[in-house]
Please model this.
Amino acid sequence: MNIVIDCRMYSESGIGRYIRNLVFQLQQLDQKNLYYLLYLNKEYKTLQHRSNFRKVLADFKWYGVAEQIKLLGLLRSLKPDLVHFPHFNTPFFYIGKYIVTIHDLIHQHFSMKRATTHGSVIYKIKQAGYKIIFKNALFKSAKILVPSQFVKDQLIGDWQVNTEKIIVTPEAVDSNIKYQISKIKDEMVLKKFNIKKPYIFYVGNAHPHKNIEGLIRVFMVLREKYHRLQLVLSGHDHYFWEKIRKNNKHKDIIYTGKINDEELVVLYKNAKCFVMPSFEEGFGIPILEAMACGCCVVSSNKGALSEVGGDAVVYFDPYNAEDMIEKIESVLKSDKLRQGLIKLGYERVGGFSWEKLARQTLEVYESSYCTR
Model:
């Protein structure tokens, strides 16, 4: 079978992580099928793969007219048996067989003006375009992969997709995150970011659904009682982080900007707790990362977060500041609770594996190909 995987988002943070781990694991599992991996120029020039994984230059960005035209032409020239799109941005007029991964529906449930940097007219046009492409991907695809039962239920409820068409393939922690845990000099990293006190940690983007402003408000209340407490916020600098930084300047709120994997592990393992305050998530890899690094987790109970965290997490209602304060404070003041959560977290994270996801995905490739 000739399989195309659209890997143009390979170097991105969220979907890129999914692509990187899927491709790596498929190379360990499958020497039978022939893969064509579509890359932007940078990755096309630098990445090396096994002999049955061939690179194809697809040097055009996503979400645009060029993608719709050029990607369609490229796929027609390759004539694959199956295409895997790791995101909903499929070519509208492509008639070949494909599967698509839908990571979440946040762009629909939080399609508010403040979640974009575009003007209102452009924003509305883009939203309409996204909806058309999204619907096309759902109903033309042979199968839909999702990271959680929560996203599957959303697709069934919001879009009336046939339940048998949707396959849940849970994601996992990057192997290099686990590998780095015993190889770090903690003091150097903490000194670099001027972290001198006990701290609460968050890592991710700062889009409105992440509820970072809510977390900051809660921290300011907690700080009145825990005077030595800091809040450490990590994420790639962009418009939303800059806006939050500008509006929330405080000596005990530390913005690290983008961090590497070594720094990430240090910040997890030395934190009093990791807090996930989101209003909605399709999965929640940072929860698993924190668990793998020996950090207890306090999380929102919305979206797929409780599905990921199980009984190894203390949950709160992100719309209720008092509940957030109470649950975060419960782990700040109890070493026994914190150590118990850390132990449960180690056990929990072991149940998630990128190898398992790749095996499930390969099974979907083969079953989709056999279904005419």
Remarks:
- DSSP finds 16 helices and 13 strands in the chain.
- The chain has a mean pLDDT of 94.
- The two ends are 14 Å apart (CA to CA).
- The first helix runs from residue 14 to 29.
